[in-house]
Amino acid sequence: MHNPHGHERVRRSAKSRPKLFFLPGCSPELNPGEWVWKNARHDRIGKSGVTSRQDLKSKAADALRRLRKRPGLVRAFFADPPLRYIAS
After folding, report:
1. Cα–Cα distances in angstroms (integers) from residue 79 to residues 18, 32, 38, 50, 57, in the given order
2. Is the pLDDT reported for residue 21 higher than 90?
3. What is the distance between the alpha carbons of residues 49 and 44, in angstroms, rounded to a whole number?
4. CA distance 76 to 72
5. Is the pTM of this model over 0.70?
6. Cα(19)–Cα(35) distance, rounded to whole angstroms?
7. What is d(CA 83, CA 18) in angstroms, rounded to the nearest whole number?
8. CA quadruple 16, 18, 24, 39: dihedral positive or negative?
9. Taking Cα atoms as reference points, which of 70, 81, 74, 79 lies closest to residue 33?
């Protein structure tokens, strides 16, 4: 569910104005969300095999929970050259 107050908290906590980056249409390597799904799909779900739709749903949720518990791994995505523009 969308949290309308979350954006306000982020805006207030930002030290400076947020930067907008306009990305090319077909550039998944520049989208951090794609890195999260790549990790879930290829590094977690793909190595275990899926037996049903419910199994896929369960494994996807587990993979995302695992990432939530490993913020260092998510931060490491931004160290990769294609995503360094975000940390600048």
Report:
1. 19, 11, 16, 31, 29
2. no
3. 9
4. 6
5. no
6. 20
7. 16
8. positive
9. 74
